Amino acid sequence: MSYSPWQRAEVPGPKRGIPLQRPEVLSALLNKSKRPILIVGHKSVEMDLRGKKLIDYLINLAKTGKIPVIATAHIIKEFSTRGFDNVTSMPVMDVANRLRDPDWKGLDGLGPYDLALFAGLPYYMEWLVLSGLKDSKSLKTISIDGFFQPNASWSTPNISSSELGDFLDGLIGKLGEN
Asked: How many domains does the chain have?
């Protein structure tokens, strides 16, 4: 497993994310969170993890903790064709700006989010979004798409798609136990 940025030219600053080694750690973070949110990009439809798309894992993850989902780009239709309707469409840069705003009351008007999970965004775009969010005192960020993001508070290391599938299966199983 590698804990260096997935793209060679991407060098983070002095504050660096913590690699997620085990799904139990992420499960504990999600259980501790009062207001998590999941931001999903278009690559989640393209990424194949052992014959299953990343978006399918993310839908199962959202269902276990009743986590609201923001679909970026054009993939909101992918959620509805899979029978998942607890999703909002919003451009990723708009999501980033709103997450930085301490006065944003969230999608439901109940207040700001304390944990944001990111998956399926292009690496360089997620890098920039996480870089802009990493100094937030009230928001923790997690990248869960198998490419280490040092600007996130926590991130999966650089792992194969099969290993990512195992990680997400373990996470969903652990959250289902609670």
From this structure: 1
For residue range 120-135, list pLDDT tens digits in order.
Answer: 999 999 999 999 998 8
DSSP string, 120-164: SS-HHHHHHHHHHHTT-SS-EEEE-SSS--TTSSEE--B--HHHH
CA separation for the pair 19, 72 (Å, rounded): 25
Name which of 46, 97, 101 is nearest 74 in CA terms: 46
Say which residues have a Cβ less than 8 Å from residue 36's Cβ, sequence separation at least 6.
30, 65, 67, 113, 114, 115, 116, 117
Percent of the chain with pLDDT over 90: 83
Asked whether residue 26 is assigned to any structural domain, the reply reads no
Domain that includes residue 119, residue range:
32-177
Q: Are 36 and 117 in contact (CB under 8 A)?
A: yes
pTM, two decimals, is 0.91
C-beta separation of 128 from 102 below 8 A: no
Q: Give the model confidence (pLDDT) of 75-84 as tens digits.
A: 999 999 999 9
What single DSSP character describes residue 47?
-
Does some domain include residue 3? no
Domain contains 11: no
Which CATH number is 62's domain given? Answer: 3.40.50.1220
Q: How far is CA 138 from the centre of its chain?
A: 17
Q: Which residue has the tokens 């996470």?
A: 171
